[in-house]
Amino acid sequence: MPSSGEFSVHDKSSYLHMLWASLAFAVMAALSHLAGESCDWQLIVVARAVVAFFFAAVIAKASGVKLVWRGSATLWVRSIAGSTGMLCNFYALAHLPVSDTLTLMNTSPIWVTLFLWLVFGQRPTAGIICAVLTSVAGIVLIQQPHFQHGKFACLMALCGAFCTSIAMLGLNRLKAVDPRAIVVHFSGVASIATMLFLLLTNRKDYSAQLSNLSVLFLLVLVGAAGVAGQIGMTRAFAKGHASRISVIALSQILFGLGFDVLFWNHSVNLISLLGMVLVIVPTAWLILGKTPQQSHDLTEVEMED
């Protein structure tokens, strides 16, 4: 790891890569929220998964990466947990302001800390306990301005972050598998899972929605923005220090807040804004602080995906 005086142009360019990746993820979230005004969120999440699978498979094949279809139980746990998290997150994006959803989705490091304590016996320090309690207080403040249906959407966003933390634990044991192959496997499982969920929960004729060119264009952009974000994140972690890059990734929350204000005319509620700060600060502290080696590795591997 470079010292404080050794940060090169490569390190600075990695920050820029992570910034536009964060912008791409925020754009994806905003487009998903916008598409949710014209079509069912189940259709949006299917488009996100299928388009991502197509692009991920093309990139992997072009790079000569050996794809893995059967894989280990750990690989399947990662893909299933990620698919579940995707369903929860896109439900939240369709029913909540973008900034609130992105804030709740970025609580994954908090859940990982709790998992490491309860499952692996890594007792957190007093500082980590304080960070978790602060985040919970922030989440309560974020929920406060919304109506009852908004609170359920907040719960779905938290469930999405919870599932992401499970995926992080699985990724720590998949270092022998090429990350691009993991992405293809996850995207393939997510495509099947989201299509089955759509058929089982909302069986209807989508021909009218898909025949709308503006809606179809939005759905393609949702998938393309997600792929762009993954590419930017991969480049960032190839050049920079993972802990510092992870903090830059939190900028997507600020981008999301900007989209809410600019395109949906949402006023900045001081209580909700305070809640966002109470979530962002301990999350950044957990990533930057000195953590057990296992927890540090989990964060790095997940972000590389």
Layout of helices and strands:
Layout: H1 9-35, H2 41-62, H3 73-95, H4 98-105, H5 108-118, H6 126-143, H7 148-171, H8 179-201, H9 207-211, H10 213-239, H11 242-249, H12 251-263, H13 270-288, H14 293-304
Helix pairs in contact: 1-3, 1-10, 1-11, 1-12, 2-3, 2-8, 2-10, 3-7, 3-8, 4-7, 4-12, 5-7, 6-13, 7-14, 11-13
> Averaging pLDDT over every residue, what do you get?
78
Helix content: over 70%
Overall outline: globular
Structural category: mainly alpha
The ordered H/E elements are HHHHHHHHHHHHHH
What percent of residues are in strands? under 5%
Low-confidence stretches: 1-10, 291-305
Distance between the termini: 21 Å
Number of strands: 0
Rg estimate, integer Å: 19 Å
Largest sheet: none
- Counting DSSP H or I runs of 4 or more residues, the number of helices is 14
How is this structure best summarized?
The chain is mainly alpha-helical and 305 residues long.
Could you characterize the architecture of this molecule?
The chain has 305 residues and is mainly α. Helices cover 79% and strands 0% of the residues. Mean pLDDT is 78; it is low at 1-10 and 291-305. The protein is globular, with a radius of gyration of 19 Å. The protein has helices at residues 9-35, 41-62, 73-95, 98-105, 108-118, 126-143, 148-171, 179-201, 207-211, 213-239, 242-249, 251-263, 270-288, 293-304. The chain has 14 helices and no strands. The two termini are 21 Å apart.
